[in-house]
């Protein structure tokens, strides 16, 4: 019988995230593991290369905490709620230190993960035609089409040392089920050397087997499973809790002031021992506005239609 892969968050980060690594922390608006990012900050990892589609708040926090020296990403914004001011300070003014950036389009990042997962030397795409990105990023290259006339842009594979993703649920062996916006979690896991999956809950094997279409990441691709309810806050988890849009709006004012940002990290991350303490600090009532009601399909009596 397969052994359980369930470990604590602290153990997962301590075991699989080392200084200098390339770390993918994916989740496209949905299912962003802020809890894992906060544990990386608590354990004071340094010189990381962070890979993310839409860097958003979690990237601002990791960079401000001194964990990240290079960012490989696309679409720099706070979940469409404003700018990421820590990133802007680093990129525009090198304040308090420069941040190396390797920028792609969303689809360019998808192609990089796909190439990494499939063991391909590159991945072709059309979407850079007419764009300035190839001029800014020399890793986006124009090559001859080997099957006909003309050229096509290509991007290199992306193979992180470790990928961290969030999901709704898994069994103890690491069969992971995701629904809603699935982003590139599956590709990012297969592209990585190691994979940590953070879930809202562990369910019995029979639950996973009863709905196999939701198993996007099978156990053979997973090294560790961390049970961390509400670990994606302030992003959301389909069927569990809603996106904390008010926090996203508040982040603009916090990140604009580097002093406020550092004070927030000191209080909410370094000042809490783990995600459970973070949740306790938010309070039970905080979740009332983020609760989601069941959305059950009702049978339709087609015989009654005329």
TrEMBL record:
Similarity comment: family membership: Belongs to the 3-oxoacid CoA-transferase subunit B family.
Protein name in the entry: CoA transferase subunit A
Organism placement in taxonomy: Bacteria, Bacillati, Actinomycetota, Actinomycetes, Mycobacteriales
PANTHER family noted in UniProt: ACETATE COA-TRANSFERASE YDIF (PTHR43293), CHOLESTEROL RING-CLEAVING HYDROLASE IPDB SUBUNIT (PTHR43293:SF3)
InterPro entries given in the database record: CoA_trans_fam_I (IPR004165), NagB/RpiA_transferase-like (IPR037171)
GO MF, one annotated term: transferase activity
SMART domains found in the cross-reference section: CoA_trans
Stretches of the chain forming a coiled coil according to its record: none
Keywords, sorted A to Z: Transferase
Domain of life: Bacteria
Source organism: Rhodococcus pseudokoreensis
């Amino acid at each position: 019988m397969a052994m359980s892969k369930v470990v604590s968050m602290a153990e997962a980060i301590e075991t699989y995230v080392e200084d200098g690594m390339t770390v993918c922390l994916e989740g496209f608006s949905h299912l962003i593991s802020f809890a894992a990012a906060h544990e990386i900050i608590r354990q004071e990892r340094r010189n990381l290369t962070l890979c993310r589609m839409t860097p958003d708040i979690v990237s601002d926090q990791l960079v401000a905490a001194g964990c990240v020296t290079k960012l490989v990403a696309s679409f720099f914004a706070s979940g469409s709620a404003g700018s990421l001011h820590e990133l802007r300070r680093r990129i525009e003014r090198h304040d308090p230190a420069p941040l190396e950036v390797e920028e792609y389009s969303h689809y360019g990042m998808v192609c990089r993960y796909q190439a990494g997962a499939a063991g391909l030397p590159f991945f072709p795409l059309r979407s850079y035609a007419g764009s300035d990105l190839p001029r800014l990023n020399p890793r986006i290259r124009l090559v001859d089409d080997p099957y006909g006339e003309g050229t096509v842009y290509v991007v290199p594979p992306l193979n992180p040392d470790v990928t961290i993703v969030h999901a709704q649920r898994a069994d103890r062996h690491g069969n992971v089920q995701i629904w809603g916006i699935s982003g590139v979690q599956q590709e990012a896991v297969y592209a990585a050397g190691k994979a940590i999956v953070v879930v809202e809950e562990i369910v019995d094997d029979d639950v996973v087997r009863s709905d196999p279409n939701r198993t996007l990441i099978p156990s053979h691709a997973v090294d560790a499973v961390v049970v961390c309810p509400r670990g994606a806050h302030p992003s959301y988890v389909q069927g569990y809790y809603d996106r904390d849009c008010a926090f996203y709006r508040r982040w603009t004012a916090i990140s604009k002031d580097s002093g406020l940002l550092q004070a927030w990290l000191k209080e909410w991350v370094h000042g809490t021992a783990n995600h459970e303490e973070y949740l306790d600090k938010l309070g039970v009532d905080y979740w009332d506005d983020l609760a989601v009601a069941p959305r059950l399909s009702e049978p339709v009596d087609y015989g009654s239609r005329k």
